[in-house]
Design goal:
By secondary structure, this protein is of the alpha+beta class. The chain contains 25 helices and 24 strands. It binds 2-(butylsulfanyl)adenosine. 2-(butylsulfanyl)adenosine (IVH) binds next to β3, β8 and β13.
């Protein structure tokens, strides 16, 4: 027998201790302490030690268990067919699919000239595995995986998930059917839930917390002991397999089963595909990898399965993993890194935002060096300190975020972060107004950070469109004192520009030409470019349409401003306050004196908007329009674009991978449109299938 060196024994003990603790926080408390990737790394290290020194192995080692522990409080369910795990292909390159195919062919004793194996490729949903038991078509039980043999009875909670049918529909339904799949939370539902949680915490609610990621929020909802709370948590479901089946059709392939499940009303992802040989699998892996950020939910990879059920049977299992399936992971969306400093960023409106500067880390496919801490309350809630080891998450198009600190890695002398009471750029007082989350620098255009932002905002494409006036140049011009206010832009001459570092005569000429060109402006662009708080492009257009001339807007009272459609008290106050300030009026006058001009019109009676008074909700991915474009178009037509479907919703515009909102709309009888329908609606027509 190989003697286990003391150091190895010690390391194995330490790893087990750590893994037990992490697994407990993950599975039992639904509050993970480290990212999955970190857990996997430690797990694999232990596995390797145990393989090398079998004498190390203990029956209670974390490596000997498939899933989690059970929470007290739920009934136990012994699975009729164990719920297994799948092997993970750690090689994230294309060879992952080739290795799997090679293994399958070897096990099946296929020769080189034999035809390729047919596979099914699926998304690997990042949620919680469920077993749904239907007897004679009725849902009788829902259980978590637990340790793979015994799970928790979560039937009451799962009955509240709208996407999971309580009764199967259609023909040939088996007498007993166990559907296996993943319950998960969509990213938008997750963001909204956390927003609600933050509000509750802000109002002083005890025992409330925000969730680290959608999977965690889903797990917390499913394993919530109070079904009333579980019901408020928006969950979704996709089926990917089955357990016990008695009766029903005789299936030959995995794909056929999924199709039957779908026909019986169980959600199956549109992205399931049949692949022939490893090259198809690689193509699928790459395509899904590219789409990953745009999907409405988190996935952590793809899954390949042998399609033929006969071949699956022939391949069988090794310990607790089938030989006919493999998970091919994508780069993790959560990683550990350390906080090098916490800086405070000053925005255009003087808003101060704490930003964690991070040791660069590769997460979700990009290198992340900064993560916003949003505001004082958020920073305090997360208690991020310089030197801390933190979990950083980047998923979808959401900006990278510090989700949590790893408390045990904190240095004893780490100092609590506090928001500065003065602006870090200009030293003016920073104040936090009653009821506001943010501190603001009170320096206004005295603050060079705000001045730089104001100039960049004025110069941007959607405002005065001054080509070549980018961040670097504006920094230089403001720092060198060439520009203090917007009119200075038109007053600085060639000499001032050429004097700037790295500025040749040719580039300087180009900048001057762009400035000259920008003088022929349009009033809405000019008004938007002034950077009045709460005045976006569409408000600027509305104001111009209503008043016709700039003077009318500048001299309008709050009451007069409130006459403008879509202008409420906050916007009206803001516009009024802006033009009450003498220096702002001076800026406008000076810009005019520099030659900035536009055509003025007469006040226009508002053209009727075809969707005025209508509420529309967008969901899923549309084929041509981005979410923002669709929203802009709807708002321009007078519609209100809401985030969730309710009885007040007039239309739901649904694209690919539409989820719970679509179900809700159907449930409430809300009209559902695709992109073509949306276009007709915008054109003032009645889309087909909808009574006017
Ligand atoms: S198949 C016997 N397919 O990943 C094979 N699993 O260890 C059983 N998962 O927690 C799993 N998406 O809940 C399969 N398309 C998919 C999946 C999937 C997510 C989860 C599953 C389990 C883990 C596999």
């Amino acid at each position: 027998m190989v003697v286990v060196p003391a150091a190895v024994q010690e390391r194995a003990d330490a790893l087990r201790e750590l893994l037990h603790r992490y697994a407990h926080s993950y599975y039992v408390l639904d509050a993970p302490q480290v990212p999955d990737a970190e857990y996997d790394k430690l797990f694999q290290e232990l596995q390797q030690l145990e393989e090398q020194y079998p004498a190390l192995l203990t029956t209670d080692s974390p490596t000997q268990r498939v899933g989690g522990k059970l929470l007290e409080g739920f009934g136990k369910v012994r699975h009729k067919v164990p719920m297994l795990s799948i092997r993970t292909e750690t090689d994230i390159e294309a060879s992952g699919a080739r290795n799997f195919d090679a293994r399958v062919r070897r096990e099946l004793a296929l020769k080189e000239g034999d035809p390729p194996v047919e596979y099914v490729a699926e998304l690997k949903f990042d949620g919680l595995a469920l077993n749904l038991r239907y007897e004679n078509g009725a849902l009788v039980q829902a259980a978590t995986r637990g340790d793979g043999e015994v799970g928790e009875d979560v039937t009451q909670n799962i009955r509240t998930v709208g996407q999971i049918p309580l009764r199967l529909a259609g023909r040939d339904i088996p007498a007993v059917l166990e559907v296996r799949g993943e319950v998960y939370m969509r990213r938008d539902d997750f963001e909204r839930l956390n927003e609600l949680q933050r509000e509750k915490i802000a109002r002083g609610a005890k025992n409330e917390k925000t969730f680290v990621n959608p999977r965690n929020a889903a797990a917390g909802a499913v394993r919530q002991l109070d079904p009333a709370i579980a019901r408020q948590r928006p969950l979704s479901f996709y089926a990917y397999g089955w357990g016990e089946i008695e009766g029903g059709p005789a299936f030959q392939t995995h794909r056929e089963v999924l199709q039957a499940l779908k026909a019986w009303g169980v959600p199956v992802s549109e992205r399931v595909t049949v692949a022939t040989g490893p090259e198809d699998l690689i193509a699928y892996h790459d395509a899904v990898g590219r789409e990953r950020d745009q999907l409405p939910f988190d996935i952590d990879g793809v899954v390949y399965k042998v399609n033929s059920l006969a071949l699956q049977k022939q391949l069988g299992f090794v310990t607790r993993e089938p030989r006919w399936a493999v998970a091919h992971k994508f780069p993790a969306q959560e990683q550990l890194t350390t906080v090098e400093s916490i800086d405070v960023y000053v925005g255009r409106t003087g808003k101060l935002t704490p930003v964690a500067r991070l040791q660069p880390v590769f997460v979700g496919g990009v290198t992340v060096t900064n993560a916003t801490l949003h505001n004082e309350d958020e920073a305090r809630r997360k208690d991020v300190r310089v030197g801390d080891t933190v979990i950083v998450r980047r998923a979808g198009d959401v900006i990278p975020e510090v989700v949590a600190v790893v408390p045990e890695k904190r240095q004893a002398d780490a100092k609590v972060f506090t928001m500065p009471r003065t602006c870090p750029v200009c030293g003016s007082e920073a104040v936090r107004e009653e009821g506001e989350a943010d501190y603001r620098c009170t320096g206004g255009l005295f603050c060079s950070a705000q001045r730089k932002h104001a100039i960049l905002h004025f110069a941007q494409r959607r405002a005065m469109d001054i080509e070549g006036l980018g961040e670097k140049l504006v920094d230089q011009m403001v720092d060198a004192g060439v520009i203090r206010t917007l009119p200075d832009l038109y007053r600085m001459g060639l000499a001032n520009l050429v004097a700037l570092e790295r500025m040749g005569e040719k580039s300087a000429q180009n900048v001057l030409a762009a400035l000259e060109k920008s003088k022929s402006a349009s009033l809405p662009r000019f008004l938007y470019g002034l950077g009045i708080r709460h005045v976006g492009e569409s408000t600027a257009r509305d104001l111009v349409r209503h008043f016709g001339k700039l003077d009318g807007i500048m001299d309008a009272s709050v009451e007069q401003l409130l006459q403008v459609p879509d202008v409420g008290p906050i916007v009206a106050e803001s516009v009024h306050a802006f033009f009450q300030q003498v220096h702002n009026r001076e800026v406008v006058e000076q810009l005019r004196a520099c030659g900035v001009h536009w055509e003025e019109g007469e006040p226009v009676a508002q053209v009727p908007k075809p969707l005025a008074g209508k509420t529309v909700v967008l969901t899923g991915t549309l084929p041509n329009l981005s979410r923002d474009e669709a929203k802009d178009m709807l708002e321009a037509a007078g519609a209100k674009v809401a985030g969730s479907v309710s009885k007040k919703t007039d239309y739901l515009v649904a694209g690919a991978e539409a989820g719970s909102k679509l179900d809700k709309a159907r449930e409430l009888g809300v009209a559902v449109l695709d992109e073509a329908g949306l276009q007709r609606l915008l054109a003032g027509e009645t889309p087909p299938g909808i009574s006017p």
